[in-house]
Amino acid sequence: MTVYGIVIASHVAEIAEGTKKLVEQVASNVPVTIAGGLPDDGIGTSIETIQSAIEKNPADEILAFYDIGSAKMNLEVCCELVDKKVQIFDCPIVEGTYSAAALAEVGVSIDEIQKQLQALVIK
């Protein structure tokens, strides 16, 4: 198993599920957990769901991706609630997650993953 795990936080369950499905095609050894939508199948994110996705991921270090602002805020709160190291990436959710997973799959360091994702960073 790779050193890193991925958490996808999206306001819509299908976006998180679809991104995970895509990532698993290129990085089957990278553990991916998702937090998509609200527990009542509504649109949104919750701290509890994101925290659970982080804690359920078997990796000790998490690369986190999100779709829009409040998902990022909830991820930031979760960083304070969990014992794992969580790196949040400010880049498009699908492209960023896919690229990071492909790099993690082949053992690229976190520093190199960060450098490679800089081209995708939302400014």
From TrEMBL:
Entry keyword annotation includes Kinase: yes
Organism classification: Bacteria, Bacillati, Bacillota, Bacilli, Lactobacillales
Keyword Oxidoreductase: no
Top-level taxonomic group: Bacteria
Domain PTS EIIA type-4 intervals: 3-123
Keywords: Kinase, Transferase
PROSITE patterns noted in UniProt: PTS_EIIA_TYPE_4 (PS51096)
InterPro entries: DhaM, DhaM_N, PTS_EIIA_man-typ
Molecular function (Gene Ontology), one example: kinase activity
Name of the molecule in the record: PTS-dependent dihydroxyacetone kinase phosphotransferase subunit DhaM
